[in-house]
Design goal:
This protein has 197 residues and is mostly helical. The protein contains 11 helices and no strands. The mean pLDDT is 92.
């Protein structure tokens, strides 16, 4: 019986997070209230506080999820940057195809980076996950190994991340979107110098 209650509680918590994610994307941090989240989730305003103590707590939880998904295994990445990035893109595209929550997290995390006045904890989480720096070192290593095109690694990183971000945003707007091929995104890094099937 306890297992069933735990499962129901976890399901409800996930529902609140999913509805909150939608609300934060559509209305922003300041346009979203716990009352509007509760209404969207079909629960009472009071019930939401059984799961999260505040709007900030919900927001922070979503940022924690996003930061966890953005973690980079630097040791593995630096062994074979090309293979790591190829597998990363393939994995992202697989998730974008199957999991709309995943796609929405890209949009949310981008918005969160530019939202002022969020909690100190949210700010610290976002600052601790400097995705540009993490990928820039992988791309620099790939350049040294001759796997990636020459040029400023930071510019290549920005172009790569912008492409992924744009694809995720379009996926949120259009569920019927046909995702590009992995090699098209890899061409940003390689200049098309590595042939794939």
């Amino acid at each position: 019986m306890a297992d069933k209650r735990d499962k129901q509680r976890e399901d409800r918590r996930n529902q609140i997070l999913a509805e909150s994610l939608d609300m934060f994307i559509k209305k922003g941090y300041y346009g979203t209230s716990t009352r509007s989240i509760a209404s969207q989730a079909g629960i009472s305003s009071g019930l939401i506080f059984n799961y999260f103590e505040s709007k900030d707590a919900i927001y922070e939880t979503l940022i924690e999820i996003g930061c966890e998904k953005m973690k980079v295994d630097q040791n593995k990445a630096l062994q074979n940057p090309y293979l790591y990035m190829h597998n990363l893109i393939t994995g992202i595209f697989t998730q974008l195809e199957k999991n709309l929550f995943f796609a929405k997290m890209f949009v949310f995390m981008d918005q969160a980076q530019h939202t002022v006045g969020i909690s100190k904890r949210s700010q610290e989480l976002l600052q601790s996950t400097n995705i540009t720096t993490n990928y820039c070192s992988i791309i620099e290593c790939g350049q040294v190994k001759g796997q990636f095109r020459e040029g400023k690694a930071e510019s290549l990183t920005v172009a790569f991340l912008a492409a992924i971000q744009g694809i995720a945003q379009e996926r949120v707007r259009s569920k019927e979107m046909i995702l590009p091929k992995t090699r098209w995104i890899m061409d940003i890094l390689t200049g098309g110098s590595i042939n794939e099937e």
